[in-house]
Prior knowledge:
The two termini are 30 Å apart. Helix content is 40%, strand content 15%. It has a single domain (3-258), classed as Phosphoenolpyruvate-binding domains (TIM Barrel), CATH 3.20.20. An eight-stranded parallel beta barrel has the order 1-2-3-4-5-6-7-8, surrounded by eight helices. The chain is of the alpha/beta class. α4 runs parallel beside α5 (90-103) and α5 crosses α6. 3-methyl-2-oxobutanoic acid (KIV) binds next to β6.
Amino acid sequence: xxxEGLKRFKQSGEKMTCLTAYDASFxxxxxxxxxxxxxxxxxxxxxxxxxxNTLDVSMDDMVYHTQAVAKGVQNALRIADMPYQxxxxxxxxxxxxxxxxxAGAQMxxxxxxxxxxxxxxxxQDNGIPVCGHLGLQPQSxxxxxxxxxxxxxxxxxxxxxKDALALTSWDVKAIVLECIxxxxxxxxxxxxxxxxxxxxxxxxCDGQVLVSYDxxxxxxxxxxxxxxxxxxxxxxxxSAVNAFIKAVKDKSFxxxxxxx
Length: 260
Ligand code: KIV
């Protein structure tokens, strides 16, 4: 799987599968099962570091975990998150994105839309592939007033559509859509030439991502509506990952029960 592969998925209509991983052991299991994409997510701030949010995750943390994941992966596309406050100006964005690529990522992801135009463009100019992240943006949890579904009203939906179109024009290769109504995600996915990867965004996205700990039923506190534990009915980690891949590919996950 590589950047070109993203286009093939979009063209063929086959759904892409993505799980987060933070170390070599989990990533090698996910890779051996045939997962298409591994996201070294800044959700490690929650699931590894025990934080209430992702705001304390540093560039050094992301580099460390990206290096570990890269050692476990042979085939899957590796996307690494740019953490909070690591893309506030163009010089900083470029320096930090290069660190993640050097650590073993093939693409970097960061949250937000038009307000980051300069950051998207500097990476485009320097040939660093970028994945966008729209809808609920966990790094903006304070501004957003909590982990809430986005795009429910017209103004908010129009903003997400506008951002998605702008990102596409800046050569972003894929966009994560988090916690938005399934109907809005469908409209965006159908109108873009690049793939969308949904989490809490309904079955019509071009792919699906889950935080691996959620998918394995390892939760502390609140469990979001879009989460499904694939371990309970499947016995072991490999079988759970295979079940997640199968359910995404045959479009049985996410069901309406897991969508907004
Ligand atoms: O950090 C992460 O795990 C993410 C997913 C929620 C998409 O960005």
